[in-house]
Design brief:
By secondary structure, the chain is of the alpha/beta class. The chain has helices at residues 40-52, 64-70, 74-82, 91-99, 112-126, 139-150, 170-182, 195-203, 219-224, 232-237, 240-247, 249-258, 264-277, and strands at residues 4-5, 18-19, 27-30, 33-36, 57-62, 85-88, 129-134, 155-159, 186-190, 212-215. β9 (186-190), α8 (195-203) and β10 form a beta-alpha-beta unit. The model is unreliable at 1-9 and 284-293 (pLDDT under 50).
């Protein structure tokens, strides 16, 4: 198999070639957490390979908020340890990684809005059944209608995220039952951090496989028009957080203006490792790890 390709099944709409094989140095440690420097097309090539082998997977994403939560909540840390691939959902994080010597580039930023077109085209062409759980009642249905208008032929079912998600609850069991009845290859969970991460950690084993589990935050709120997405150039420039802060300062002030200060210690450790002690792409322990699977 060629190491670089542009015409793999999920890359028909890709503008640039992407790698079919992961390289060890693309799994990096930044601010004390492991993450993968991957482009959206590479994410779905990875997922397609796992599904073809009959294997389920968990696709996570790190940003500054998730790093903050990981340092404070055991369940969130356990979720990221269980993840098979960890996207980087933060341009400032990518720029920081570049500063300390990682081989990160702006095109490594992976969020739902960045890979939306690649994903839905691939889901339609591959015949993947997609289930979304999250959002307020009625929102997911509106988003589904919009997606099916843009991508006719996609098999998509939805369920709102306003249910008792505690383990063993009848409502949670009913949601898992609905998912399994639909038999999706892709499960998108959009309940916000950290609820969505905890839910996937607690329930992924109960979902019949093979199935790839993604945490996607407010993706369907954007699709439904409930939230306004920042222009994509703001994401690439690393100032999307400012757009969101201005739009919702009461909810997001702590996230964007207070939480990042908790990462000063890991940032100083990164600088020490990068310039005084270790090879630039090594994870704690001196190993160079590759993506699982």
């Amino acid at each position: 198999m060629s190491e670089v390709a542009k015409t793999a099944p999920l890359a028909q709409s890709a503008a640039r070639p992407f790698r079919l094989k992961r390289r060890p140095e693309e799994r990096v440690s930044v601010l004390g957490a492991a993450m993968d420097l991957v482009r959206p097309e590479e994410v779905f090539h990875f997922v397609a390979g796992r599904l073809a082998r009959g294997e389920s997977s968990i696709i996570a994403n790190h940003n500054l908020h998730s790093l903050y939560l990981s340092r404070r909540k055991t369940a969130v840390r356990d979720f990221f340890k269980a993840a098979d691939l960890v996207e980087v959902d933060s341009t400032p994080l990518i720029l920081w990684a570049r500063l300390i010597g990682r081989s990160s580039r702006r095109f490594h930023r992976c969020t739902y809005l960045d890979w939306r077109d690649v994903f839905w085209a691939g889901a339609r062409d591959e015949g993947w059944r997609v289930f979304f759980v999250g959002g307020a009642p009625g929102v997911a249905e509106t988003a589904r209608d919009k997606i099916l208008t843009d991508w006719p032929g996609v098999e998509l079912s939805v369920h709102h995220g306003y249910f008792d998600a505690s383990p063993g609850s009848s409502e949670n069991a009913a949601v898992v039952e609905a998912i399994n009845a639909f038999k999706p290859q892709i499960l998108l969970v959009g309940m916000g951090m950290p609820r969505q991460e905890v839910w996937v950690l607690e329930n992924h084993a109960a979902v019949a496989g093979p199935c790839a589990h993604f945490t996607v935050g407010g993706a369907f709120d954007y699709e439904a028009g409930v939230q306004k997405a920042a222009p994509r150039w703001m994401g690439q420039m690393g100032v999307e957080w400012l757009f969101r802060l201005v739009a919702d300062p009461r909810r997001l002030f702590t996230r964007y203006c207070v939480e990042p200060w908790s990462l000063v210690g890991p940032a100083l450790a990164d600088l020490r490792h990068a310039f005084l002690e270790r090879p630039v792409n090594s994870l704690p322990g001196g190993d160079i790890r590759s993506v699982k699977g």
